[in-house]
Amino acid sequence: MPRDNPALHRSQKAPVATRRRWLIAVAAVVALTASGWGLYAVIEPAFQTRIVITTGADNGIYRGFADHYAPLLKRDGVALDIRSSSGSGENYQRLKDPSSEYQVGFIQSGTTVPQDTDHLETIAAVSYEPIWVFYRDAQTITRLAQLRGKRIGIGVQGSGLLQVSRVLLGYSGITSDNTQLLEMDAPKSWRCLEDGCLDAAFFIGRPDAPMQQMLLNSDLKLMSFAQADALVQKFPSLKKVTFPRASTSIVNDSPQTDVTLLAATALLVARDTLHPALVYLLLDAAKTVHSGEDYFTPLGAFPNLNTDEFPVSNESERYFKSGRPFLQRYLPFWLASFIERRLLILVPFMAVLIGLVQALPRMLESRVKKRFVVWYRELKALEDEIWRTAHPSAQQLSQWRNELESIDAQASQIRVSTRYLQDVYALKQAVSVVRQRISLAAGSDV
Description:
- By secondary structure, the protein is an alpha/beta fold.
- Helices cover about 45% and strands about 15% of the residues.
- Strand 1 (about 50-55), helix 2 (about 60-75) and strand 2 form a beta-alpha-beta unit.
């Protein structure tokens, strides 16, 4: 209905200002843009099929873990992009950097001081990492303090071993002021021990790793930590474990006694923005790779959540409590992920849609009723003027009749569905009532 209708000269409102229309248009564009961005933010992660993981040395234990994960993830269409590093320390620095591309990595317990601003979460503790101290000495060494004044290999920059070895030596009063602490990697430390340029060296890794096998089958001596209980109390991130007698060789009875070791825990850590579905895939892979028994843990001991280094992922807590989500148990990863992400959109969308469907009839009815209200308002204004005028002039009577005929003509042109025809005739009846009022005011019949 046009705003400049002459029949509405008594109740017609001023047209909407150009500025106001412009503001409404801008608000609509902003709302649409925000909605589009929100939908993209929800949908985009569902199509992620690549995980960038930071591990450790190319032949190290962490790289071995990642190499076992890769084919398991590939079965679900997810590629594991494996990146080497110097070790746990560098992995931590990479993951906490918000501008880096790294999403997941291995971090050794006790090697970092996590901050709330890191935005990192533990997916699972996946394995013990025994700490080995091999040495060359006629004397049996069972305390780190006995290494004072000697040449000791302690790991390399960026590795978790470097941090742990320094802390353990510090508890025993050994520092760079009284002992030669040499930073070098495992292969170099082993060669220096063999060549005699080192007296002792720290190593870390599983007993079945190639480096540990070479060391255990060499002429070097393996230190048993006689003070393990006290060291664990001071350094709670470490655990006391036992390497059983004859574990290297039953035939040769090597070692000839149980050896007490200290062990860090390998943690699978991720940014808190990692897609939940990918967290579940990583947990499945970790369970397959790490659930077996070994010298230090019974069957099924790993993976677990027995760590407080970083906050534990919500998905991990749910996984260890009830397993994978329902859809991911019975559908391929890509399909389950697709459905789950769309449900985040469809559920609130359907709720809004149902509300709109329910409200639409009322909105349409209100719009139709409003068309009649406009004319009723105009009639009421005309009738009020008639009642207020005790002795109308001939010009006023003519004006009233013209206005009334214009309203009657406009009412006859209203196009509505049959269910609203009664409103049309009710309006025409109201026009007749006002026409009678004009006739009474003029002192004559209609």
